[in-house]
Specification:
The protein is of the alpha/beta class and 387 residues long. Helices cover 44% and strands 16% of the residues. The strands form three sheets. It has an eight-stranded mixed sheet with strand order 2-9-8-7-6-3-4-5, with helices on both faces. It has a four-stranded antiparallel sheet with strand order 10-11-14-13. Strands 1-12 form a two-stranded parallel ribbon. The protein is globular, with a radius of gyration of 21 Å. It binds 4'-deoxy-4'-aminopyridoxal-5'-phosphate (PMP). The site of 4'-deoxy-4'-aminopyridoxal-5'-phosphate (PMP) has 14 residues, from helix 4.
Length: 387
């Protein structure tokens, strides 16, 4: 295990004079906090003897029913029996790696990939084989080529790890045509797919995209989370897995943590049952869309020539590529000195590449701060180019 570059950055980036485009923190202050507070008070007052007691490792059955209703928005038909509640989807990743990965096994993942997943795979000594993505997500031909090569080399591929919607960190979305292709290729190679989808309901333009899991219930393991659609503080996510995998996940969860927090689970359950949660998601989407627009407009107005960036249709992140010869990691201290923070690209690759890239988040700062942050960043890049 190694320290995450993002965690190290957070300590510096949280200083008030710095505009942080680094963290991926949801804007929880947009929630009706008084209502949530009342709900929590009620729960302990009315149902405290249950809410404050040990629960189960698979998770509260009624919450799992509600989770199935949430996934139905993406075309997923599932039984609550096959849902395992997790401590955020991060625990889902950990449990999956725990049950699937032996040291030296291969996990195939996009280049770049979510840093928290790479950290988990490394902790279980998986080897990550990266497959490139472009503006339409993971590139099927490259996936086919990589799986073919790994097969010829006799390597054991445990699964494809993918974030199909509003990718962290790349900001891109897997197109509908590619979804079918990716499933076909994984079927041909008999490889499982881990679909990590915390941002799927945070699209700005269209109805939610159909989940990979909706079209292949036997091959796809789906990870979901309430961190971005409600609040990360409850630490409630889930895994929807084929039957046999689900049973192992529950055993792994029991040994990892005995039981979930009933209080957190009841809070999310109550929120879904009694609050206008779809309206709240809509409000989040509008808030993030405005910030995305501000970031894209500011980049277009201010960044020097030679920079390129993705145009996310949802989620939290823009992926920026610097002009040839510049190094986002080496530049980071100079950006901090100029009072702007971002995450250098290198953390999102298991192979140490990614020096020309950076992740910019627009989810947390107010629009005026986003513009100021981009202005400072553009000045730093100008400076580097003139060196
Ligand atoms: N997967 C992805 C792609 C993420 O971006 C995150 C959070 N940044 C997670 C998983 C973990 O989220 P949580 O544990 O809060 O559900």
């Amino acid at each position: 295990m190694v320290a995450s570059e993002i965690r190290a950055l957070f300590a510096v980036a949280s200083r008030p004079e710095i505009v942080s485009l680094a963290g991926g923190m949801p804007s929880v202050s947009a929630l009706p906090l008084d209502v949530v507070g009342e709900m929590l008070g009620e729960l302990t007052a009315r149902r405290g003897s249950e809410a404050l007691q040990y629960g189960s490792a698979q998770g509260d059955p009624e919450l799992r029913e509600r989770i199935c209703e949430v996934m139905a928005l993406e075309g997923v038909r599932a039984s609550a029996d096959d849902v395992v509640v997790t401590v955020g989807s991060q625990q889902g990743l950990d449990l999956l790696a725990r049950i699937f990965v032996d040291p030296g096994d291969v996990v195939v993942a996009e280049a770049p990939s979510y840093v928290g997943a790479l950290g988990t795979f490394a902790a279980y000594q998986a080897e990550v084989a990266h497959v490139p993505l472009d503006d339409a997500g993971l590139i099927p031909a490259a996936l086919r080529e990589t799986l073919g090569r790994l097969r010829r080399e006799g390597r054991r591929v445990k699964f494809l790890y993918t974030v199909p919607n509003f990718h962290n960190p790349a900001g891109v979305t897997l197109s509908a045509a590619r979804r079918a292709e990716v499933l076909d290729i994984c079927a041909a190679h008999d490889v499982l797919v881990v679909e990590d989808n915390p941002y799927g309901l945070l699209g700005f333009d269209e109805a939610p995209l159909r989940a990979l899991r909706a079209d292949d219930a036997d091959r796809v393991i789906y990870l979901g989370s309430f961190s971005k659609t409600f609040a990360p503080g409850f630490r409630i996510g889930w895994v929807l897995a084929p039957h046999a995998v689900r049973a192992k996940l529950v055993l792994a969860a029991e040994s990892a943590m005995l039981s979930h927090s009933n209080l957190s689970q009841f809070a999310v359950r109550e929120y879904l049952a009694t609050q206008p949660w779809k309206q709240q998601i809509k409000a989040f989407r509008e808030l993030y869309r405005e910030r995305r627009d501000t970031m894209l407009d500011s980049l277009a107005d201010l960044m020097p020539e030679g920079c390129a960036w993705t145009r996310p249709a949802g989620g939290f992140y823009v992926w920026l590529t610097l002009p040839e010869g510049l190094d986002a990691k080496a530049m980071a201290p100079r950006a901090i000195a100029a009072r702007v923070a971002y995450v250098p690209g290198t953390g999102f690759y298991a192979d140490g590449t990614g020096h020309r890239h950076m992740r910019l988040s627009y989810c947390y700062p107010e629009p005026a701060r986003i513009r100021e942050g981009v202005r400072r960043l553009a000045a730093v890049v100008e400076q580097e180019l003139s060196l």
